[in-house]
Amino acid sequence: MINVLMDFPLKILSIFTKSSGNLFREILRKLNSYFGGDVKPVKATEVKTLSCQTSSHIHKLHISLPIATMGDNNGFLPFPKGFSTAAIHSGQDPEQWDSLSVVPPIVLSTTFKQHSPANPKKYEYGRSGNPSRNVLEECLAALEGARYGLCFSSGLGAITALLGLFKSGDHIICGDDVYGGTNRLFSKVATPLGITTSFIDVTDLSNIEKCINSNTKIIWIETPTNPLLKVLDIKAVSEIAKKHNILLAVDNTFLTPYLQRPLELGADLSVHSLTKYMNGHSDIIMGAILLNNSEVHEKLRFLQNAMGIVPSPFDCSQVNRSLKTLALRMKQHSQSSLLVAKFLESHPKIEKVIHPGLPSHPQHELCKKQTSGHSGMVTFYIKGGLEDSKRFLSALKLYSLAESLGGYESLVELPSVMTHASVSEDQRRVLKITDNLIRLSVGLEDVDDLIDDLKQALSVI
């Protein structure tokens, strides 16, 4: 159903009638018939002219009314122009293949014939470069508005490559609420190598300034954070990082470049677990780094090859395919998750709902300022403890109890014992990652069915 939103009173530009009748009611009736939904009053910034035919009493009328358009986007930033066009065409030119294949072929060969010793045509060995991987890297860079794109065998593989930029004695600043695997990599893998990490609340920018040392090399943030969905001010953090000549990396997994563009907000690196929304089908594990800095790119390209953290050509082809529908999928995830969040917020057995699209979210205005919307992620606290959480999770029928997120299917998990079990108990307590905190990844099913499933599961606690 499409709702046309318009200001009252309507300004009628020209009317040609035989009899007046109840003109206002006729206008509303016809608009409802035309748009298939309720006409409701709302302020709008753009006025458009619309023509419609009415009953025999009104031959023709032209009315000027504000219509809520995609450009308004409910107060969020506009969706990036040309995004789907870039997703479908960037890096996909059939002219690059002798076969003129419209769909890029999957090149599985691990090695490539050379014209003469140390004189390859373009590729030498599959770890160093592969046509299927290069197609994907070029497409990803275009979508992020980056000069360079690099793909890795997983999201954590991408972060591991970043660690290769640093040495013993270097220091990392990391947001305190991040993916459990990121926390584990920094605290349990980087630390023995002599690379220290400070985990801080980045919603308070003064914490960053206090934590910066002469050996601080990079600031790592997720926004929205995982699993508490805190929204961090990328532009403000980037200004601090630039002042101190420190790299800023933003994990953009939860929103994708369709909804958030960290490089345009001042970040040096945009990092993704492509496993999630970018691929969107829960059948590939992969990561990526997108950036503009040529010097850092050269170092990462070396590390990609030297560390061997590369994805397979088949997996690259699958992600390249999935990008073609990314915009469509993210719009649906966004719409459905907000409806789910609103339902949960009104339910008496829910203690608190966290969704950046809700006005109740503490960084709601910041979210509107730096994103084009939110994805399918919803976090909430039920009233109760671990046993209540278990009963609720066991009663769900459409949401699969599983880790990960961003697929077409809806998933649900208990972060305290699943995705964030590797985070220390003390830190989980500080962050309020408790046993009654539930994380949803709202998929592409009919949203009414998803809400009904939550409703019946909540009835058992």
From TrEMBL:
Cofactor: pyridoxal 5'-phosphate
A biological-process GO annotation: cysteine biosynthetic process via cystathionine
Gene3D superfamilies documented for this protein: Aspartate Aminotransferase, domain 1 (3.90.1150.10), Type I PLP-dependent aspartate aminotransferase-like (Major domain) (3.40.640.10)
Enzyme class, broadest EC rank: lyase
Organism: Ignelater luminosus
Name under which the protein is recorded: cystathionine gamma-lyase
UniProt keyword terms in alphabetical order: Amino-acid biosynthesis, Cysteine biosynthesis, Pyridoxal phosphate
Pathway participation: Amino-acid biosynthesis; L-cysteine biosynthesis; L-cysteine from L-homocysteine and L-serine: step 2/2
Residues with PTM N6-(pyridoxal phosphate)lysine: 276
Lineage: Eukaryota, Metazoa, Ecdysozoa, Arthropoda, Hexapoda
Family membership noted in the UniProt record: Belongs to the trans-sulfuration enzymes family.
GO annotations of cellular component type: cytoplasm
